[in-house]
Protein backbone atom coordinates (compact mmCIF):
# COMPACT_ATOMS: atom_id res chain seq x y z
CA UNK A 1 0.00 0.00 0.00
CA UNK A 2 1.28 3.45 -0.85
CA UNK A 3 1.42 5.33 2.42
CA UNK A 4 0.13 8.88 2.68
CA UNK A 5 2.45 11.24 4.56
CA UNK A 6 0.36 13.14 7.14
CA UNK A 7 2.99 15.91 7.29
CA UNK A 8 2.66 16.45 3.54
CA UNK A 9 -1.14 16.49 3.79
CA UNK A 10 -0.86 19.11 6.57
CA UNK A 11 1.43 21.14 4.31
CA UNK A 12 -1.14 20.85 1.49
CA UNK A 13 -3.76 22.31 3.83
CA UNK A 14 -1.39 25.12 4.80
CA UNK A 15 -0.78 26.00 1.15
CA UNK A 16 -4.54 26.00 0.49
CA UNK A 17 -5.09 28.25 3.51
CA UNK A 18 -2.75 30.84 1.99
CA UNK A 19 -4.99 31.27 -1.05
CA UNK A 20 -8.44 30.72 0.48
CA UNK A 21 -10.58 33.72 1.39
CA UNK A 22 -13.83 31.94 2.29
CA UNK A 23 -13.97 31.92 6.11
CA UNK A 24 -15.90 28.63 6.31
CA UNK A 25 -13.42 26.88 4.03
CA UNK A 26 -10.50 28.41 5.96
CA UNK A 27 -11.87 27.10 9.25
CA UNK A 28 -12.40 23.65 7.81
CA UNK A 29 -8.91 23.56 6.29
CA UNK A 30 -7.41 24.73 9.55
CA UNK A 31 -9.17 21.97 11.48
CA UNK A 32 -8.19 19.30 8.98
CA UNK A 33 -4.59 20.55 9.00
CA UNK A 34 -4.59 20.06 12.79
CA UNK A 35 -5.97 16.52 12.35
CA UNK A 36 -3.10 15.71 9.94
CA UNK A 37 -0.53 17.15 12.35
CA UNK A 38 -1.93 15.18 15.28
CA UNK A 39 -1.90 12.00 13.19
CA UNK A 40 1.69 12.65 12.09
CA UNK A 41 2.76 13.04 15.70
CA UNK A 42 0.99 9.87 16.81
CA UNK A 43 1.60 7.72 13.73
CA UNK A 44 4.64 5.91 15.15
CA UNK A 45 2.44 4.57 17.95
CA UNK A 46 -0.27 3.22 15.62
CA UNK A 47 -0.46 -0.09 13.84
CA UNK A 48 -0.42 0.03 10.05
CA UNK A 49 -4.13 -0.79 10.04
CA UNK A 50 -5.02 1.93 12.56
CA UNK A 51 -2.91 4.47 10.67
CA UNK A 52 -4.58 3.55 7.38
CA UNK A 53 -8.00 3.93 8.98
CA UNK A 54 -7.15 7.38 10.31
CA UNK A 55 -5.70 8.48 6.97
CA UNK A 56 -8.87 7.34 5.21
CA UNK A 57 -11.10 9.13 7.73
CA UNK A 58 -9.26 12.44 7.53
CA UNK A 59 -9.02 12.14 3.76
CA UNK A 60 -12.79 11.72 3.54
CA UNK A 61 -13.33 14.79 5.72
CA UNK A 62 -11.05 16.80 3.48
CA UNK A 63 -12.78 15.54 0.33
CA UNK A 64 -16.17 16.44 1.80
CA UNK A 65 -14.95 19.93 2.68
CA UNK A 66 -13.65 20.42 -0.86
CA UNK A 67 -16.88 19.08 -2.37
CA UNK A 68 -19.06 21.29 -0.15
CA UNK A 69 -16.93 24.35 -0.86
CA UNK A 70 -17.12 23.84 -4.60
CA UNK A 71 -20.89 23.35 -4.38
CA UNK A 72 -21.25 26.63 -2.46
CA UNK A 73 -19.17 28.54 -5.02
CA UNK A 74 -21.35 27.49 -7.95
Account of the 3D structure:
This protein is mainly alpha-helical and 74 residues long. The chain has one domain. 81% of the residues lie in helices and 0% in strands. It contains 3 helices and no strands. Helix 1 packs antiparallel against helix 2. The longest helix is centred in the C-terminal third of the chain and has 26 residues, at 48-73.
**What is the share of helical residues?**
over 70%
What structural class should be given to the helix and strand makeup?
mainly alpha
Number of domains: 1
The best one-word shape is: elongated
- What's the story with the biggest beta sheet? none
Estimate the mean pLDDT confidence: 92
- Gap from first CA to last CA: 36 Å
**H and E order:** HHH
What gyration radius follows from the Cα positions, in whole Å?
13 Å
The number of strands is 0
Task: Note the total helix count.
Answer: 3
Low-pLDDT stretches: none
The percentage of residues in β strands lies in under 5%
